[in-house]
Amino acid sequence: MPAAWAQGTAAWEDQTKLPRSPEIHPDRTVTFRLFAPGAREVLLVGTQIDAATHGPKALTKDDKGVWSVTVGPLEPGSYVYGFSVDGGIKSPDPANPDMEPRRWGQTSYLEVPGDKPLAQQRRAVPHGTVHISAYDSKSLGMTRSVYVYTPPGYEQSTAKYPVLYLLHGAGQTEDAWISIGRANIIMDNLIADGKAAPMILVMPYCHLVRAWADEPKMSSAAADEAIEKDVVGDVRPLIEGDYRVLTDRDHRAVAGLSMGGGIAMSIGLHHPELFSSIGSFSGSVRYRPELEKVDGAALNAKYKLLWVGSGTEDPHFDTNKTIADLLDAKQARHVFRTSPGAHVWPVWQLNFSEFAARLFRN
Amino acid sequence: MPAAWAQGTAAWEDQTKLPRSPEIHPDRTVTFRLFAPGAREVLLVGTQIDAATHGPKALTKDDKGVWSVTVGPLEPGSYVYGFSVDGGIKSPDPANPDMEPRRWGQTSYLEVPGDKPLAQQRRAVPHGTVHISAYDSKSLGMTRSVYVYTPPGYEQSTAKYPVLYLLHGAGQTEDAWISIGRANIIMDNLIADGKAAPMILVMPYCHLVRAWADEPKMSSAAADEAIEKDVVGDVRPLIEGDYRVLTDRDHRAVAGLSMGGGIAMSIGLHHPELFSSIGSFSGSVRYRPELEKVDGAALNAKYKLLWVGSGTEDPHFDTNKTIADLLDAKQARHVFRTSPGAHVWPVWQLNFSEFAARLFRN
Question: DSSP state, B73?
Answer without folding.
Answer: P
